[in-house]
Every structure is written in structure tokens, then in C-alpha cells.
Amino acid sequence: MDYIDPHIHMVSRTTDDYETLARMGCVAMSEPAFWAGFDRGSVESFRDYFRQLTEFEPKRAAQFGIKHYTWLCINAKEAENVSLSREVIAMIPEFLEASNVLGIGEIGLNKNTKNESTIFLEHVDLAARFNQQILIHTPHLEDKYQGTKMILDMLVSDARIERSRVLVDHVEEHTIQEVLDRGFWAGMTLYPITKCTPARAADMIERFGTERLMANSAGDWGPSKPTAIPDLIMELKRRGHSRELIRKVVYENPCEFFSQSKNFKAPIAPS
Amino acid sequence: MSQDPKPPARSAEKVLSEEFFIARSKILDLAATLDRLERADGSLEALHQLKLLEQGMEILLDDQSDKAKRVQLLMSRPYDPDWRKNYGLH
Ligand SMILES: [Zn+2]
């Protein structure tokens, strides 16, 4: 089945992974800017990274017929460095006209600190000023509940932000309801150990429905599985869900959400 | 356009028969982890993480629903609605 992975960090994957994803039905993906596994020393490091995301990765993906989109920001972990973050935020507009940029992301919180919150608010302001969509990273483990609520507080306090243009990722059983009830899109990250399994994601689809809900693999530097969405498709099929329902979650919903960015073009995929 | 997210026919018996061996193996993993802890040196009494695991296991056995969410909340730091004021962020 054709699908879109709305959150996958391909800079950390091999070219073989692109080939495997293409064989499994991945037709498009979006890659939010994130932590590199180490803290970067200067704004120039981020400029090079944004070139990688806007120039190199789309070409690597295109070799396998996959359309590559991206989101730009300084991630929550490095946002602890406020002065570096402000330099990066000031530089981002240089890249907003690149043809594969969908918006600002993945912005969010990591340890829910004051500095992270300050930089989150400045990213939200950047998105509002440039009419960009937003992709949100919510914290992991014991910080997720508190951090997700703090993020929602900050988003709803800015009247310029349209909730239907914000995707809140890494939702789990204790955060999904509030994200959806407040009118945002929600993404479930299928990740071994620290996040959500395909079975639990299928449970959330059964409980909360398919409106404004997507699934992603994250596929990053940590232990993660870039082919996690096909695993979810298998789980939903095993439970007897219809092809239409599965396609809505893994293909139509990402298309509908991304279509609010002027750069997104729906991949041609037979239903 | 909202679709019915429920699968056509998956009775409690079917769910149980499909999930039984998975759940069984998870209980065994947990049991073996607790055995491993017991064999290790040192006292476990004051360990906060162990308390959390025990409280989590109590949720599994009580008669309330929403177990996954309640385990998640048990393992979460609390949210303070006044956080923004406390941080001096307006
Ligand atoms: Zn990510």
C-alpha cells in the first residue's frame, strides 16, 4: 500500500533504507530538523544542515521515486543555548523559499525548561510572521505529559496560530485526547522501547478515530525502525480494518495536512 | 467525513486468543525482571523506580478501565497550570 511517513530523519539513514522504504510503498516523507546526536557549535553548522535537508536529501530520495519534504528549526535540546538559537532563527528565512520546505519544525520541549520555552515561543512567532505550518516535538517519558500541556498552552496563547496547521507529534495514550480535542493534528511515533508500538497505535486509532491522526517512524539516530508504518498497516489489516481506513491514516491524512503548505504536491498514487 | 474505526468483528474471545501468547510472554518478562532484581545485591526498599513499577502493576490488576493512560500518568511529572508565571514568561 502506498504511504507517506510524515516524520522521519533520513539524514541518519543509509541509501539502502531509502530503497527498502520505496519497496514497501513509501511515496513521500517529511523530515523535521532535529538534534544531530551532539550539540552543534555555531550557526554555520545549522546552515550546512539546512542545505543537506533542502538540497541533498531530496535528491537522494528522488533516486527511489520518493518525494522528500522538510521542516526547519533549532531543536528543543539545543534550544537550551538561547543565543545560538536566536542566530539560527534569524537565519531560517534564507531557506523558507526552498521548494521542499513545509514549515517550522520539529520545535517543542525536551526537559520543559524556561530556555526551551523561550525559544519555542520565538519559533512560533517566526512561523506566524512567515505564515508557515508547524510540526511539534513533544518530550519523552516522564516529561511528555507536562511538556505537551505546556506546548499547547503556548500555541493557544498566540491568536495568529491556526490549530489545523499544527501537527503535534509523539502523542501517546495520556496526551492524544487533549491534542485532538483542542483542534490540532496528532502524530503517533512508532518507536521501539521509549514510544509507541504498532499495536498501541492501532488501539488509539480504534479509540479516537482517524480524523486528524497520523503515524510516523521517526527513524533517527537512536534504536528505531524506518519501516514502522508498514508494521502498523499489517497490524490494522490483521485486526480486520478496511483498506479505506488504513489509507486515510497513512496516506490521505498526511496529504490533507501537508496540502496547507504551498510547496506540497500530493504524490500520484492509485487508490 | 468520519469513518467507524472499529474493525468488523473482533469479539473478546478473538482478541484474547490472538493476544494471549503475546501477553503471556510480557508477564514472563516482567516476572523474570523482578527475579533478577531480587538476586541482585543491595536493598530495594527506597528505590523510587521500583515503587513506580509496583504501582503500575496494581493498575493492571484493579477493576478500572483506561489502564494504559493511567500507567502513563503514574509515570509522568505533574503539570502546573501556573508554569508560565513561575518562569516569568508572558
Ligand atoms: Zn523527530
Distance between the termini of chain A: 9 Å
**Count of helical regions of chain B:** 4
Strand order of the largest sheet of chain A: 1-2-3-4-5-6-7-8
Q: Biggest sheet of chain A, open or closed, and with what strands and sense?
A: 8 strands, parallel
Question: What share of residues of chain A is helical?
Answer: 40-55%
CATH homologous superfamily grouping of chain A? Metal-dependent hydrolases
β-sheet strand percentage of chain B = under 5%
Order of helices and strands of chain A: EHEHEHEHEHEHEHEHH
Please tell me what the overall shape of chain A is: globular
Number of domains of chain B: 2
Q: Helix/strand/pairing class of chain B, anyone? A: mainly alpha
Overall, the morphology of chain B is flat
Number of strands of chain B: 0
- On the 0 to 100 scale, the average pLDDT of chain B is 90
| CATH class category label of chain A | Alpha Beta
Which small compounds were modeled alongside the protein? Answer: zinc ion
Strand content of chain A: 15-25%
Low-confidence stretches of chain A: none
Average per-residue pLDDT of chain A, rounded, comes to 96
What features would you describe in this structure?
The complex is a heterodimer of chains A (about 270) and B (about 90). With about 270 residues, chain A is an alpha/beta fold. In chain A, about 40% of the residues lie in helices and about 15% in strands. Chain A has one domain (about 5-260): Metal-dependent hydrolases (TIM Barrel, Alpha-Beta Barrel). Chain A has an 8-stranded parallel β-sheet with strand order 1-2-3-4-5-6-7-8. The radius of gyration of chain A is 17 Å and the shape is globular. The relative contact order of chain A is 0.15. Chain B is mainly alpha-helical. Chain B has 2 domains: about 10-40; about 45-80, no CATH class. The model of chain B has no long low-confidence stretch (mean pLDDT about 90). Classes of the chains: A alpha/beta (about 270), B mainly alpha (about 90). Zinc ion (ZN) binds near residues 32, 34 and 106 of chain A.
